[in-house]
Amino acid sequence: MKFTAAQIAGILEGEVDGDSDIEVSKLSKIEEGSEGSLTFLANPKYTPYIYTTQASITIVDKAFTAENPISTTLIRVEDAYKSFSKLLEYYNQVKLNKTGIEQPVFIAETAKYGENVYLGAFCYLGENVKIGDNVKIYPNVYIGDNVSIADNVIVFAGAKLYSETVIGKNSVIHSGVIVGADGFGFTPNEKGEYTKVPQTGNVVIGENVDIGAGTTIDRATLGSTVIKNGVKLDNQIQIAHNVEIGENTVIAAQTGIAGSTKIGKNCIFGGQVGIAGHITIGNNVRVQAQSGIGRNVKDNETLQGSPALNYGDYNKSYVHFKNLPKIIERFNTFEKNIKDE
């Protein structure tokens, strides 16, 4: 796809400073720009590159003033970073704007789908599936019986949505995601053998949710595992049965959340955080990477460590952790001197 500077300026409500007919067909970093590419300048640290970049078009703030000659055509906007992000979103919409039903696919007779949908090759739609308008289902996706998918959802290749799953509008499910597999429920008998506890619930995913590649969300034992509106999940996260995650919470990769834990809204979790089951985490909680949470957490706490401590207490304690050998040596010397007296 090719776009002229004039077309891009129209999308961004910007002004062209240079050749309005010049075309681009790819994106680049400003320091790696080449002919036919589009880039942007937002961080002042990269300003020197605008005088050497070979990119055909560069998006800049309206306030930018060139101190040396430049060869790139400028598109001046109010905020270069936001405008470039807007353009990336527009580019993705154009690139992903597929429609129609490829072959072969399997669609159960009782399945229903809306207008302007895309069903990639080798998709499977089970009994009583309901798919809204403008939904895009990429190849090799499995959608089990009674799944409901609202408008404008994208499910990328190879994802698996088990039966009774509910997906809210404008959500994105990336490749390799598994939603609705059985929760990890087993009970021991008198012989020490484990018997599976049937997992009869489902998963309910809200609106505007992003779920990264390889993430797994287990169905509830009873009721629902719930991911509320606006939640953003990174790649390779494990969410166990009956977990509830509140609105607009963000969780980084390789985090694991054990069963029946409730997490509030507007929380941020770093990578590789481990969260025990049957606890409650409040709203606006911040957890640093690789922390372990084994207790209830109040609103607005910031935690670090394993087991996690208050962030400030952890940093104060760390000063002593790293000096512990010296402290022990001093203590032993003091103890020896006491005995010698």
TrEMBL record:
Q: Name one Pfam family in it.
A: Hexapep
Give every UDP-3-O-[3-hydroxymyristoyl] glucosamine N-acyltransferase non-repeat region domain span.
21-89
Residue positions of the active site? 241
Keyword Transferase: yes or no? yes
Question: Which superkingdom?
Answer: Bacteria
Q: Which pathway, metabolic or otherwise, does it act in?
A: Bacterial outer membrane biogenesis; LPS lipid A biosynthesis
GO MF entries: N-acyltransferase activity; UDP-3-O-[(3R)-3-hydroxyacyl]-glucosamine N-acyltransferase activity
* InterPro entries hit by this protein: Hexapep (IPR001451), LpxD (IPR007691), Trimer_LpxA-like_sf (IPR011004), UDP_GlcNAc_AcTrfase_non-rep (IPR020573)
Is Lipid metabolism one of the keywords UniProt gives this record?
Answer: yes
**How would you classify this enzyme at the top EC level?**
transferase
EC number(s) stated in the UniProt entry for this protein = 2.3.1.191
Mention any one GO cellular component term assigned to this protein in its UniProt record.
Answer: membrane
**Keywords linked to the UniProt accession:** Acyltransferase, Lipid A biosynthesis, Lipid biosynthesis, Lipid metabolism, Repeat, Transferase
Q: Which reaction does it catalyse?
A: a UDP-3-O-[(3R)-3-hydroxyacyl]-alpha-D-glucosamine + a (3R)-hydroxyacyl-[ACP] = a UDP-2-N,3-O-bis[(3R)-3-hydroxyacyl]-alpha-D-glucosamine + holo-[ACP] + H(+)
PANTHER family on file: UDP-3-O-ACYLGLUCOSAMINE N-ACYLTRANSFERASE, UDP-3-O-ACYLGLUCOSAMINE N-ACYLTRANSFERASE 1, MITOCHONDRIAL-RELATED
The record's subunit annotation is: Homotrimer.
Q: Function, please?
A: Catalyzes the N-acylation of UDP-3-O-acylglucosamine using 3-hydroxyacyl-ACP as the acyl donor. Is involved in the biosynthesis of lipid A, a phosphorylated glycolipid that anchors the lipopolysaccharide to the outer membrane of the cell.
Protein name in the entry? UDP-3-O-acylglucosamine N-acyltransferase
According to its UniProt entry, this protein's organism is Ulvibacter antarcticus
